[in-house]
Each structure stands twice: as structure tokens, then as C-alpha cells.
Specification:
Layout: H1 19-41, E1 46-51, H2 55-70, E2 74-75, E3 84-89, H3 94-113, E4 118-123, H4 129-138, E5 144-146, H5 154-164, E6 168-170, E7 191-195, E8 197-198, H6 209-213, E9 217-218, H7 221-233, E10 238-242, H8 259-267, E11 274-278, H9 287-295, E12 302-304, H10 312-317, H11 324-337, E13 342-349, H12 356-369, E14 373-378, H13 396-419, E15 425-433, E16 440-445, E17 450-454, E18 463-471, E19 476-480
Parallel strand pairs: 1-2, 1-3, 3-4, 4-5, 5-6, 7-10, 10-11, 12-13, 13-14, 17-19
Antiparallel strand pairs: 8-9, 15-16, 15-18, 16-17, 18-19
The chain binds S-adenosyl-L-homocysteine, iron/sulfur cluster and FE3-S4 cluster.
Length: 481
């Protein structure tokens, strides 16, 4: 990976024009400021990052963390004691936004107690004009605001804020070049996320993501493979390839490449033991990909394939571009080629026009596809999307009832499939100490199901044989063999 020694940067020269060099230059400058301030104050400066969104956002936070560490900030245990607080926001549903506003209110008090505290907001929510207006009017204690396209500029924005002592807003409407080689601090030592593409072109009619993450663009395969090789050399065993729709990876690149080909290339990287990816859009799932998953021994036997809904008319209005039959056909094909695969999904309830009868179709898909897991969401109206102005919005009490019916269909199947694992032995990667009982470790099976088993911190990051002894709907219990 790109290694830069900030000590070798001449911070009294003019800022370089190269995007990458420029940021390292500003990191060096901010580091000088922070060192000076820490000396004056007699204790180090600290940061706290809160991530509100998906894996993509979480991975962006790892880049923010990497840059802050370069600038000599230390990680704070608690938000209220931190000198630099960043909220990496999400706007996919309204409640994600409400949480941000709620927390910002609290931060006003913390900032009064710590005059050094700086507050930065970034991520998807900041790409919306209405949000920016609200921040400017009601949250004047915010110091820095940036969006999804210019995250790499953190150091430059911090420097500007230190110099001017005025709030800095920098939001781009469009993406610039993909900036490679930012410093990154991974959350896990032995597993890592890798962006393979950014943005989304699908414009599902309920979804805000294409508006806040911009048009789809893929990274070239050489950059991806080099990153993964460097991760492997650094001890990483599991990589998750990230994109809003990995199945359309490669479109628009000069090289002849597909996601299936990329998977086969990643499978060759020495040291990597497990490969995962998120997310697959059913409309673009190719046979070629199914065969690649079947053939590549490191690719986990798990696919997350969001269905959203089962009714063809609803799917059409959602602009999903597949039918219930097509989806079920895919499930069948996948299970035929890879018999023990786990299929998980996203389901949305309450899309405009979705009647009780429409929900029956969703329940039918649940029963036929027999999902191993599902994220279920209540439709949330997102300003600016086509669905937000549809007239047939569904009343809340009806949505709640339909939502419960979906859960009633889903949960017994998930439980039943989980129970089939009892008595069998699986390879499990130990992720963390259990939050409820320190003597337990939590880990994931290859199919992504969660298991708790007796162990200690020293086991984290390794892969163990674990015998499943009991099952619940949302997790398994096991013992190391
Ligand atoms: N790109 C991924 C999904 C990203 S968003 C894909 O297409 O599969 C993750 C999930 O959030 C979606 O699958 C959808 O189920 C849900 N979601 C998106 N917009 C939503 C909205 N307006 N209200 C409720 N749920 C939504
Ligand atoms: Fe949103 Fe659809 Fe793109 Fe997924 S594919 S991010 S649901 S627009
Ligand atoms: Fe992810 Fe939320 Fe943005 S789901 S892409 S963080 S809107």
C-alpha cells in the first residue's frame, strides 16, 4: 500500500496539486497544529467517529479513522470526551436521520464543556440541500460538513477550519476521480472491506442512494487486487467486496471484466481464506457469477439477494426490473449449483400501493425461497425519490399489520433452517468477545450465521471448528472442538 512519511513533507511549501499528495500535505499541517495544541494543553487530542449507515459507510469511517490517526489524534472511549467528533451519516430511512439530529442536540452540551471540541458531519445525509439548510439554521455548533464525494479531503477541511475558525461546508454534487491509497485503520485486524465500485445507477423508485452516492463507477481490477494483496500481507484472512450492486461491476471500465472474473482473481490471492460480497441485485445476477461462486473455494457459501417485495406490480413500480418468478428462478438455480448455500435478503413493507394481497406475494416468496436470514424494513418516504410523490401511500397501522405478517412467515423458517445445523461442525471465524458474557466469543459461519461459543480474546481473528449445540432464531450456540 501507499506509504507516506509525514515527517518528510515540507509543510512550508505550496500545497501540491496532485489530489493524493495534497491530502498528505494537509495531514502533515494539521498534525503540526495538533502536536502544538497537545503540548500546550498537556494531553493528547482525541477523536470519536459514529457511523450511522451501511457497510459502505462503515468502510468510509475506517478511512476517516486512518487519516485522523495520521494527524496524531488518538481514539476516545466516549464521544463526550472527544476533541473531534465525526458523524458519518445515513439517509436511507427517516429514523437514521432523526438519530443524527437527536445526537447533535446532545453534542451542544458536550461542546460547551470542552471548548476544544470540533464537530464534523459527513456521509449520505449531507448530500441533501434540505439537510444542509437545517444544519446551517439550527445546528450552528457544527464546524465541518462534507459529503460522500470528498471524504478524502478531511485534512484540508480541518486545516481550513483551524485557520479561519469559521464553519466549513464543502459538498460536491458530483463525484470526482476515485482517490486511491488513503490511510485506513481497519476495525478488525484479520478481516477487511474493499470497495470495488461506488454509486448506483438503478434508481429504485423508493431509494435515495443514487442521489447521494452518485453514478456507478468501478475501480480497476489491478487496484483492487493490489489492495487485497497488501491486506493479505498484513494478516487479513477475510475480505468483503463492497458495492451497491456488485453484479454490474466492470461496466464502463476499459478492461474486459465482470464481477465473476474479479471473484476468480480474488480467489487466487494467497493468504486470503474467505471472500464475501455485498450486495447483489437480482436483475444483474449472471450464470457466470453462480459458476464462479461454485468453483471458487474461498468464496463463502452465502449470497445476499434483496428481493424487496413479491408482487409483480409493486416490483415494477419499484423499478426493480425483475418479477417474482424470475427471482424464484434465480434462487432455484443458485441452490442447484451450490446446494448448501445460505440465501439472505432485504424485504420492504409498505411501499405505496402495497395492499394486503400484494404482501401475500411477498409471503409466498418467503415460503418458496426459504431465506436463511432477512433484513426487514418499513417503507420510509424519501424526499426527491419518485415514490415519495405517489398518491397511494399506505396508512401506518396497515403497514404495521403487514409487517408483522411478514415476520410471522419469515422467523419460523429462519429458526428451522438454523436448527438443522445443531450437531454439525462448522468453520467459524472468531470476531469478538460477546457483549453479554465475556467468557463467550461471537463468530460467523461461512454462511454468515452468527454463533456464540466459549472462548477468550486471544482467539479473535482465527478460524475454528465449532460444533453447534443449540439454536435460536437469530443466532446459534456452539462449542469449539
Ligand atoms: N443496493 C442495495 C441496497 C442498499 S439499501 C440493493 O439494492 O440491494 C439497503 C436496503 O434498505 C434496501 O435493500 C431496501 O430494502 C432498504 N431501503 C432502501 N430505501 C428504503 C426506503 N426508502 N424505505 C425503507 N427501506 C429502504
Ligand atoms: Fe437503492 Fe436500488 Fe441502488 Fe440498491 S440498487 S442502492 S435499492 S437504488
Ligand atoms: Fe449506506 Fe445509508 Fe448511504 S445505507 S449508502 S449510508 S444512505
Amino acid at each position: 500500500m501507499f506509504e507516506v512519511d509525514l515527517d518528510n513533507i515540507n509543510t512550508s511549501s505550496v500545497p501540491p496539486l496532485d489530489k493524493n499528495e495534497r491530502q498528505y500535505y494537509y495531514m502533515a499541517k494539521v498534525r503540526d497544529i495538533i502536536r502544538e495544541k497537545s503540548r500546550e494543553r498537556g494531553k493528547p487530542f482525541t477523536f470519536f467517529i459514529q457511523t450511522f449507515g451501511c457497510q459502505m459507510n462503515a468502510h468510509d469511517s475506517e478511512k476517516l479513522r486512518g487519516m485522523l490517526r495520521e494527524m496524531d489524534y488518538e481514539e476516545a472511549e466516549e464521544e463526550k470526551n472527544a476533541d473531534f467528533v465525526i458523524y458519518n451519516t445515513c439517509c436511507v430511512r427517516e429514523n437514521a436521520e432523526n438519530k443524527v439530529y437527536g445526537n447533535l442536540g446532545y453534542l451542544k452540551h458536550s461542546k460547551r464543556e470542552n471548548p476544544h471540541m470540533k464537530i464534523a458531519l459527513c456521509g449520505c445525509m449531507m448530500q441533501q440541500d434540505t439537510v444542509l439548510q437545517t444544519i446551517r439554521q439550527k445546528y450552528k455548533h457544527v464546524d465541518i460538513v462534507f459529503g460522500t464525494f470528498n471524504l478524502y479531503k478531511l485534512a484540508e477541511l480541518m486545516y481550513t477550519n483551524f485557520e479561519t475558525e469559521a464553519p466549513v461546508f464543502d459538498i460536491w454534487k458530483e463525484h470526482g476521480d476515485i482517490v486511491e491509497d488513503l490511510p485506513t485503520i481497519r476495525h478488525f485486524k484479520y478481516k477487511a472491506s474493499v470497495n470495488i465500485m461506488f454509486g448506483c445507477n438503478n434508481f429504485c423508485s423508493y431509494c435515495i442512494v443514487p442521489y447521494v452516492r452518485g453514478r456507478e463507477r468501478s475501480r480497476c481490477s489491478a487496484d483492487i487486487i493490489n489492495e487485497i494483496k497488501a491486506l493479505a500481507a498484513d494478516g487479513v484472512k477475510e475480505v468483503t467486496l463492497l458495492g451497491q450492486n456488485v453484479n454490474s461491476y466492470g461496466r464502463g471500465l476499459e478492461e474486459e471484466i465482470t464481477f465473476a472474473k474479479l471473484l476468480r482473481m480474488v480467489n487466487e490471492v494467497e493468504g486470503i481464506e474467505r471472500i464475501r460480497f455485498m450486495t447483489s441485485h437480482p436483475k444483474d445476477l449472471s450464470d457466470e457469477l453462480i459458476y464462479a461462486m461454485r468453483d471458487c473455494e474461498k468464496v463463502c457459501k452465502h449470497i445476499h439477494l434483496p428481493v424487496q417485495a413479491g408482487n409483480d406490480e409493486i416490483l415494477r413500480v419499484m423499478n426493480r426490473k425483475y418479477t417474482k418468478q424470475h427471482y424464484l428462478g434465480l434462487v432455484e438455480k443458485i441452490r442447484k449449483e451450490i446446494p448448501d448455500i445460505a440465501i439472505t435478503t432485504d424485504i420492504m413493507v409498505g411501499f405505496p400501493g402495497e395492499t394486503k394481497e400484494c404482501v401475500e406475494d411477498t409471503i409466498d416468496v418467503i415460503k418458496k425461497a426459504r431465506f436463511n436470514g432477512a433484513f426487514t424494513f418499513i417503507y420510509s418516504k424519501r424526499t426527491g425519490t419518485p415514490a415519495a410523490v405517489m398518491e397511494n401511500q399506505i396508512p401506518e397501522d396497515q403497514v404495521k399489520k403487514n409487517f408483522n405478517r411478514v415476520l410471522e412467515a419469515l422467523n419460523p423458517i429462519i429458526y428451522e433452517l438454523n436448527c438443522k445445523k445443531v450437531g454439525k461442525v462448522y468453520k467459524v471465524m472468531a470476531d469478538d468477545v460477546s457483549t453479554s458474557d465475556e467468557s463467550y466469543i461471537t463468530g460467523r459461519l461461512e454462511d454468515n450465521s452468527l454463533v456464540h461459543f466459549k472462548g477468550d480474546r486471544s482467539m479473535i481473528g482465527d478460524i475454528f471448528d465449532v460444533k453447534i449445540t443449540d439454536c435460536k432464531t437469530f443466532y446459534l450456540i456452539g462449542e469449539k472442538v
